[in-house]
Amino acid sequence: MEQTGSRDVLGFAVTGAPDVRGAAVRVPTQPRAADVDRERGAARGPAAVGGAARGEHTHSETPIPQPRVEGRHVVQRSSVRGQIVDALRTALVSGELAPGEVYSAPALGERFGVSATPVREAMQQLALEGAVEVVPNRGFRVVERCARELAELAEIRALIEVPVMLRLARTVAAARWAELRPLAEATARAASSGCRATYAESDRAFHRAVLTLAGNEQLLRIADDLHRRAQWPLVGIPVSRARAHLVADAAEHAALLEALIAQDLTVVQSLVREHFTGA
Predict the structure, then answer these.
(1) Which of 143, 132, 119, 131 is nearest to 225 (CA)?
(2) Is the distance from CB of 221 to CB of 204 less than 8 angstroms?
(3) What angle in degrees, to the nearest 10, is found between the helix axes of 239-261 and 181-193?
(4) How distant, in Å, are the alpha carbons of 2, 13, 54 from that of 16?
(5) pTM for the predicted model, two decimal places
């Protein structure tokens, strides 16, 4: 792959980074903060415009066109931040945000067409999730994961979900499990594509549908957070090996459903543990 030595896939300067802009995750372009300040200044008068031009601090945030719903304006600032969080998470899973690299909020904001504030908030969320760490006066560094961290996450997921799966296997009707087959098939198709980001989304959807049957919202939140963390790729895994792992992982979904339909608790326990830990 050609090395540009100038910008990475999300549009920041990274020496020697491959130019793969075509794979970048796109967020709908929003008006830039400077344009918003000029518009607001024009509405308030010349004095306000002059104040903004002199660099006075404002708390303006990049606005989004606000559709009316039953005569009210819908505030959508949080949806912009949410879109950026989703885009960054996808970039993490796919490897577009490279482990060990530092990315700044202004550079990301320029890429996404928003101010640095919602990007910084999105990065702070990723920091809470353990995906990135704050680098003072520079931005955020993508955390480099190790095999031990992945093993620890798998162990925790098994401790939480195996007992739940066994309880559900005893209480949920076979017809209800059969309804989840399309989700299992979707993971198989996503795995065959070799796209980690696409597979990650379908994989979470399958597991979320299974755990939803437990009727425990707190369980769903905790399990989904652990699952998302477990999907961040390790450094240096060849693409061919990663694809083979996805295909094998997806096949276990179908096998698990069949065991749940048959209420075979021994097989259910074995499959779930192997699915998480590979043991």
Answers:
(1) 131
(2) no
(3) 170
(4) 9, 9, 38
(5) 0.65
Distances (CA, A) of 17 to 36, 94, 125, 196, 238: 33, 15, 25, 20, 18
- What string of DSSP letters covers 55-71? T------------EETT
DSSP SS3 for 218: helix
> Sign of dihedral through CA atoms 134, 140, 145, 149?
positive
The separation between the first and the last C-alpha atoms of the chain, rounded to the nearest angstrom, is 36
The answer to whether the beta carbons of residues 226 and 157 sit under 8 Å apart is yes
CA 119, distance to chain mean position in Å, is 14
Tell me which residue has tokens 């925790």: 156
> Phi and psi for 140 in degrees, rounded to 5?
-135, 130
CA–CA gap between residue 279 and residue 270 (Å, rounded): 9
Q: How far apart are CA 62 and CA 234, in angstroms?
A: 35
* Per-residue model confidence as pLDDT tens digits over 208-267: 999 999 999 999 999 999 998 888 766 666 555 578 888 999 999 999 999 999 999 999
Q: Write the DSSP symbol of residue 97.
A: S
The mean pLDDT value of the chain amounts to 76
Pairing of strands 139-142, 132-135: antiparallel
Q: Which one-letter amino acid corresponds to residue 195?
A: C
- The amino acid that residue 182 corresponds to is P
Joined together, the tokens standing for residue 44 give 């308030």
Candidates 6, 2, 22; CA nearest to 14 is 6
